[in-house]
UniProtKB/TrEMBL annotation:
Family that this chain belongs to: Belongs to the radical SAM superfamily. NifB family.
Molecular function in Gene Ontology: 4 iron, 4 sulfur cluster binding; lyase activity; metal ion binding
Pathway: Cofactor biosynthesis; Fe-Mo cofactor biosynthesis
PROSITE patterns, sorted: RADICAL_SAM
Domain of life: Bacteria
Domain Radical SAM core: 21-268
Cofactors required: [4Fe-4S] cluster
Name of the protein described by the UniProt record: Nitrogen fixation protein NifB
Keywords from the named record: 4Fe-4S, Iron, Iron-sulfur, Lyase, Metal-binding, Nitrogen fixation, S-adenosyl-L-methionine
């Protein structure tokens, strides 16, 4: 039985965009360490094998190592029977569009595995200006993380941004980021990409803007929204995460506006396998080297 989210139109094999996440696997390639914004909830200083959190990876790969990892995971999943690697994405640990190796990696992956769906996750700051490279790389799907709809709220979430060679903080930085995110979203929709909006839901900080954000991004061309509970780390280490009941209520309300992704596991930057059933990549690579 298919296990895609029922409210999404399954027009793609991508498990995060309505595809069957019980059969279609994905891999995140951690080739992008640098970031051009600092989110208050971002904490990348530590990692353990059992920790699943966006921005976390055990190590950074070169583009060539990334292609070798795709080959290994693709073969490993094929041997399991009934499941297949369908999607290759770059989701950090920093922002992919702020790293030169992102597009070199996509080029090598496309050459080696032309059947793969390519996807990218970004904070959106450089999205509009990188659209020509995104289209040239034949990227199918984009995830844009937008956590605020006003500069005042954004200033409480983002510590700083770096844009055009300068650092900006406070509402000035948040306003630049928001303007770039919305312009990038509109440009990506105009180019025909499938677009999901990630939104970190932080009680008492940005929860009052979530539904208005759903309306705004829907009107600009987003097809799916993924509302995620804040993980209490960094500046928000003392914030109590929203309950499961609260998340269900918010997603139900938002679903009246825009399709909701409900199976998100807030995956690592080096996740591989089926969503929620990640493969121990480090162990698999060590086993390969042992033979």
């Amino acid at each position: 039985m298919a296990s895609g989210c029922p409210m999404m139109q399954a027009k793609t094999e991508h498990p995060c965009f309505g595809g069957d996440h019980g059969k279609a696997g994905r891999i995140h390639l951690p080739v992008a360490p640098g970031c051009n914004i600092k989110c208050g909830f971002c904490e990348r200083r530590f990692d353990c094998a059992n920790e699943s959190r966006p921005g976390v990876t055990s190590r950074i790969l070169t583009p060539e190592q990334a292609v070798a990892r795709v080959r290994l995971i693709r073969r490993h999943m094929a041997m399991q029977g009934g499941v297949h690697l369908k999607v290759v994405g770059i989701a950090g640990p920093g922002d992919p569009l702020a790293n030169q190796k992102t597009f070199e990696t996509f080029r090598l992956v496309r050459e080696a595995f032309p059947e793969m769906t390519l996807c990218l996750s970004t904070n959106g700051l450089l999205l509009e200006e990188k659209m020509p490279q995104i289209v040239e790389a034949d990227i199918h799907s984009l995830t844009i993380t937008i956590n605020a709809l006003t500069p005042a709220t954004g200033a409480r979430i983002y510590e700083w941004i770096r844009h055009g060679g300068r650092h900006y903080g406070g509402e000035t930085g948040a306003a630049i980021l928001l303007e770039r995110q919305l312009c990038g979203l509109e440009a990506a929709a105009g180019a025909g990409l499938r677009i999901k909006i990630n939104h970190v839901y932080i009680p008492g900080i940005n929860d009052h803007e979530t539904l208005d954000l759903a309306v705004e991004v829907r009107n600009l061309g987003a097809q799916v929204m993924n509302i995620m509970p804040v993980i209490p780390v960094g500046l928000f280490r003392d914030v109590e995460p929203p309950s499961d009941a609260t998340m269900e209520m918010v997603r139900n309300q938002a679903e009246l506006i825009l399709s909701q992704a409900r199976h998100c596991k807030q995956c690592r930057a080096d996740a591989a396998g089926l969503v929620g059933q990640d493969i121990d990549v480090e162990r698999l690579e060590k086993k390969r080297l042992a033979y």
